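Sample log: Carbohydrate ABC transporter permease.
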Amino acid sequence: MRGRASGPSPLPEAAGRIWRTLGAAFVLLVFVPPLLLLVSGSFTEPGLPPSPTPRLVPDPVSTTGYVQALELGGLLRASLNSLLVAVVAVPLSVLVASLAGFALARVAARTTAVVVGATLVALMVPATALLVPRFAIFRTLGLTDTLVPLIAPALLGTSPLYVLVYYLAFRALPADLYDACLVEDLSPMRTWWRVALPLVRPVTAALTALTFVLTWSNFLDPLVYVYDRDLFTLPLALRSLSVLDPTNFPVFLAGAVVATVPALIVFLLAQRRFLHHDDDPRGRS
């Protein structure tokens, strides 16, 4: 009897595709309808009484809500402030977290256990518990009512979670790879930048998107540190629109659309890396 050729069964791969399709369909069903209602409501004419039932196509279609949102809420200046914070904080946070994670993956096992344990303890501390000491530090340094307190956490990688994610990613790389770098006499910094970091691009894409969304939507820190209206970020500007009367709800919805679109764009740019996990880990599709 002639033996059958051995090879991977197509059934698990087909099942994986089916589950990914179902997962994507579930995400679409959960998130797309609210987004459609958000966009539809933003094009409703301000001043009209709210419709008793949601409408996907408002009648009449109007862009007055966007004009008033930019004028009343100062969304243009607030968007520029938020963009400035994100452009500085997001790359800085990813670089610091990747450096710390790489160093943690290359030190001795005993040191790694201690640092990982301390990092897990730090993750258990509520962020609100650090508001008072952080505020005291920034006030002493004269940095309140500036954008510096919104960017400064990036110098620490923003969150210990990012360091742990990078640590696990760098640790998963083959040990022979690091040995080859030693043979080639590559310094730790060159090994991190030229060898290790390109191999964890999906992790970098995922953390970049996550950091951008958290930075872009950060409301508590600007509320604590920023008082000058010219320095308001987008969440604070949206808060000023939330006090409008119900007949002007399209103005607030228009502001919400302006705040949502950049986060969606970043997610769409990054999704190819952190959703399609069957891509080549070296970044080749």
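Observation: DSSP finds 13 helices and no strands in the chain.
Observation: Residues 10-42 form the longest helix (33 residues).
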